[in-house]
Predict the 3D structure of the following.
Amino acid sequence: MYDVRSATSAPVSPGLLYTLRVLVLAHAVSLLVAASFAGQALVYGETSLTADLATAETHVMVGMVSHLVGLLQVVAAVLYWRPGRGAGWPALASLALFLLGIAQHFLLFIGLGAHVPNGVLMFGLLALTTVWAWSPSAARRR
């Protein structure tokens, strides 16, 4: 006879979970690096136009890497959720992070008044997702 409890209590596929963990961590690191270059561009922008432009360009390039990692994170989170039978909210959080990242790219044209709060929101959501991904509860099936 088939035991439903044993099927739902089995852990999520370790490969899917590890992939999601690595991508969430890579996304967090890329976002942190992008923010550090943004801060340097603002500080050095007052004294040297060359340093401002080079650092701002680096900020944009790291942001693009963050977009790519965010997209891969969405794919991994959906695979973790649907075939992997893991929790569904990380897929939604990853999609929200990806869309906030795309919006972040265009909010700079509006000004720092919209760009900075959106970045802080991204940091908060990504911090929650990172803490969850590396917690033991991430390995449980839903």
Summary: The radius of gyration is 18 Å. The CA atoms of residues 12 and 139 lie 5 Å apart. The mean pLDDT is 86. The chain has five helices and no strands.
